[in-house]
Amino acid sequence: xxxxxxxxxxxxVALNRASVHRDPSTDIKPVGxxxxxxxxxxxxxxxxxxxxxxxxxxxxxxxxFYSVFxxxxxxxxxxxxxxxxxxxxxxxxxxxxxxxxxxRITVEAQMQKFLPERHATLGDDIATAHFIVHRGGSVxxxxxxxxxxQDEDDEYDLxxxxxxxxxxxxxxxxxxxxxxxxxxxxxxxxxxxHLSFENVALFNDWYLDRISGNTLPSLEKLNxxxxxxxxxxxxCLYRLPSxxxxxxxxxxxxxxxxxxxxxxxxxxxxxxxxxxx
Length: 277
Hints:
Radius of gyration: 28 Å
Oligomer: single chain
Strand content: 5-15%
Distance between the termini: 114 Å
Number of helices: 8
Shape: globular
Order of helices and strands: HHHHHHEEEHEEHE
Structural class: alpha/beta
Number of strands: 6
Largest sheet: 6 strands, mixed
C-alpha cells in the first residue's frame, strides 16, 4: 500500500503593475555573498550605465558655468515633461497665440547662444561688438569717440574679420531684449571699462551672476538701472576687482539694500554705489 502525501508547490507571486514599475532601489536584494567580478567588467558596466542616462544634469557637465546660485538649481526636471504631457490640448485662439509667443521667445533665446566659431574668427572684442550692435546696442572702441550702432536701414560699420589692435572699451545694451543665453557672448573682454544694461527688463540676478563670472578684469563702471536685480544679486560683484562705479535705482531702498551696499563698499573701498553720477 502506498501512503498519499500532500505536496505543496510554492508558485511565484503574480506580478502586478506596481511591482513592475517600482523604484529599483526598493527591489529585494539577493541573499548570499556578493559575486566578485573582474574590475574591467565592473568598469564597463558602470560606463554603460552612464551612457544610458537620458541626460546629464547641468551641474555635472564639465563645460557648464559654475553659478553661485547652483544650490537652487533643480537636478531633475523630468516632472515638467510629465506635467505637460498630462495637460489637455487647448486649441482656442488665445491659447494658440500664447503658444506662438512662447515659441518665438524660445527661438530668439536660441539665436543668442554663444558661437565659439564667431569668437575664434573675429576675436572676442569684435565678435561681441557684432552681437551687441546687431541687436540694437552700441559700442565704442579704444582711441575713438565714435559710437557704432545701427542706422535707419539696420546697417552698421564693423570689420568682418579679425583686426589686431581693436579694443572694445564701452558697451551699451540699454533697452535691448537680452536673454540669459546671450550673456555668454560678453566674455573675455580683458580691457572693457564701461558696461551698461539700463532698462533691460529681463536682466535679473541670474544675468548678473553670469556677467560677473566672465573675464572682465578691467571693468570700472556698471550700469544696472531699470533692471530686475535684487540685493541678493549684488553679492556676485566680488568677482569684479576693478569696479569703481555701480549705478542702481535706489541704493537705500530698504535695510537689506543698505546692508548689501555697505558690505560691497567695505570689501572694495574704491567702489561707489549710487543712483546717478
